[in-house]
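Students often ask what a 'structure token' actually looks like in practice. Rather than answer in the abstract, let us consider TldD/PmbA family protein, a protein of 448 residues. Its sequence is given first.
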Amino acid sequence: MLNPDSAKDRVAALVERARKAGADAADAVYSGSSSESVSIRLGALEDVERSESEHLDLRVFVGRRSASIGSSDLSDAALGELAERAVAMARAAPEDQFAGLAPQDCLASAPWPDLDLADTAEPGPAALRALAQAAEDAARAVSGVTNSEGGSASASARTFALATSHGFCAATSGTGFGISASVVAGEGAGMQRDYAWRSARHGADLPSPAEIGTLAGERAVKRLNPGRLKSGTMPVVFDPRVAGSLIGHLVGAMSGSAIARRASFLLDKDGAQIFAPGITIVDDPRRLRGLSSRPFDGEGLPTASRRLVDDGRLTGWLMDSAAARQLGGTPTGHAVRGAGGAPGVSASNLHLEPGALSVAELIADITEGVLVTELIGHGVNGVTGDYSRGASGFRIVNGEIAGPVAEFTVAGNLIDMFAALVPANDLEWHRSVNVPTVRVDGMMVAGD
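Now compare that with the structural description of the same chain:
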């Protein structure tokens, strides 16, 4: 994996090759990563993995025609051929009136803020094994745990670089650390599985492996002997582990490309009151040590904190340059680059601001409801907003969390769900999407 300065040199050189090959404009992306992980099962070493990868992606424009091509061969000969092939492909491609680089006058410029994304610690296999062992030991020590799917610990590093033919060239790097445990409680047909995991940019920000393992064990034991729910309309409370997925559906529907294709359930709702007053959802790409923090986006535009929902109102779309041209707007700094192709759109570090009620107060008036701790399947229609997911969790009876329940479905429409959503005050900050416990009244639950 290249260091940031070398990665910048490599993408700048590739862009220059593309211009010499006949491209009117071009951008190039370098992505390099390394990772190491250790897995323990039933106290024995199960797996040690190390991986390293490097990839260059080139996008070229010939007039209004464009093409993208990538390679994991970083040799000079391979990159020269890559540039020639990309330009030849672009000349044969159809015209796209919205294609092109980001507006030059909008490009980000150095100096970049120090977001503290890279840890200098480099734990080796022995240290990772000790963390994984401690997590699994703690999980297996919980009374009622009968088997283990293992404990694991990992460390990784990544470098990203972007260069464009109209003057942008920059690189970022960061690290990641993770600990997890997954165990089984009970016997035979009554077995139940659950897990716990945490990840962070810096190893020091992780909780102890014993805390993670204990949580995994306790979660598995609590799921033993699940009952069944009766079908009906009732309040559904989403645990923070799954509540973030609701915000993910919102962000997907806010994509400018989805709006341009008229393939979003938020169509024609720019500025609309879709949540209750007081609800605020913030995207903060420059959060210190944030899991998805970045000083510039995938087109070289500056990032900035933004309220996606302000006092319940939608504040506009998330747009890369192509979507902005199509919609007559301005790119918003949310472009992301994957392995090849044109940029996509994504938010970064998201959070739903907490409400005023504790979880106990949030559920106090629920006579019959359900707390969802796991969602299953992908039954969400991004065009209509129709929502239907398999689930498991716990009954709520007369304002109290009761026994576990499984094999039921929760359904509704996201527009109605957002309007009814009420957050608790238990927001924690350790995910890319941080959401407190939320309550949504009036959902259909299909059980027995």
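One point worth highlighting: The mean pLDDT is 95. Ask yourself how you might have guessed this from the sequence alone, and why that guess would often be unreliable.
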